[in-house]
Automatic annotation (TrEMBL):
Name by which UniProt lists this protein: tRNA (guanine-N(1)-)-methyltransferase
Keyword Methyltransferase assigned: yes
Organism lineage string: Bacteria, Thermotogati, Deinococcota, Deinococci, Deinococcales
Record's keyword annotation contains tRNA processing: yes
UniProt enzyme class: transferase
């Protein structure tokens, strides 16, 4: 079981997210554990005050490092102690895959002006969801919880369902369709209804390449492209220079047609 411990001032924000839908079922089956720790319980004063004014002046309040330390000390040892901060490394699918191999992850969810900078000495990793600012770390924690937990064996109904997800394969995901077969003159592609699984697989790969080329070409250098992918990208409008930039292999050499020597006719 992978246990997620979230140190927060607002555990009620994370409680419903962790107890409903697939995450709730996974917790009920003992596949994951979610431990919500209220840092106010470690304030060590009668008013449960966890923050104070910043040295040097300025707006807002700062969460005390001694409060965070006592809250962390109440937990079993964690494989990773993670702080959500704009200065952290970008959280990606690769990060989620790495964290899914752990057994206990502890997360510090800040509020106000964040934590006293000395908290950084207590953590093993700093993470950021992107270049934007939120009011606290709980929303980021919910995103990381779902991204990591779904990779644990047994959490999703289909063990292979996440392998072709966007970013897992290095590409954006291919488009999906279901009934009705036609809606407002938009029809499901015929190849998906033909039952030829080889053709479907090729179509899906080509669609993933097309979407990634059009929307997120920055992903292509790390997508593990094949010679067949290179040929498909060239057909989609990429250039040989683009392939070289992405580190893609050259496309397969075209097959040469064998010239046949005409057989001599009768009497020759």
């Amino acid at each position: 079981m992978l246990t997620f411990s979230f140190l927060t001032l607002f555990p009620e924000l994370l409680a419903p997210f962790a107890s409903e839908a697939i995450l709730g079922k996974a917790a009920a089956r003992g596949l994951i554990g979610v431990n919500l720790v209220n840092m106010r319980d470690f304030a060590d004063n009668k008013h449960a005050k966890v923050d104070d004014t910043p040295y040097g002046g300025g707006a807002g309040m700062v969460i005390r490092v001694d409060v965070a330390e006592r809250a962390l000390a109440s937990l079993p040892p964690a494989d990773e102690v993670i702080l959500f901060t704009p200065a952290g490394e970008r959280f990606t699918q690769r990060t989620a895959e790495e964290l899914s191999e752990r057994e206990h992850l502890a997360f510090l969810c800040g509020r106000y002006e964040g934590f006293d900078a000395r908290v950084e000495t207590l953590v093993t990793r700093e993470l950021s969801l992107g270049d934007f600012v939120m009011m606290g770390g709980e929303a980021a924690a919910a995103c990381v919880l779902e991204a990591v937990a779904r990779l644990r064996p047994g959490v999703l109904g289909d063990e292979a369902s996440h392998r072709d997800d966007s970013f897992s394969s290095g590409l954006l995901d291919y488009p999906e369709y279901t009934r009705p077969p036609e809606w407002r003159r938009l029809a499901v592609p015929d190849v998906l209804k033909g039952g030829n699984h080889g053709a479907i697989a090729r179509w899906r790969r080509e669609q993933a390449l097309a979407r990634t080329l059009a929307r997120r070409p920055d992903l292509l250098p790390g997508a593990g492209l094949t010679p067949q992918d290179s040929a498909a990208l060239l057909a989609l409008g990429a250039t040989l220079e683009d392939l070289a930039t992405w580190g893609a292999p050259p496309p397969p050499a075209p097959r040469r047609k064998r010239s046949r020597t005409p057989k001599p006719g009768p009497g020759l």
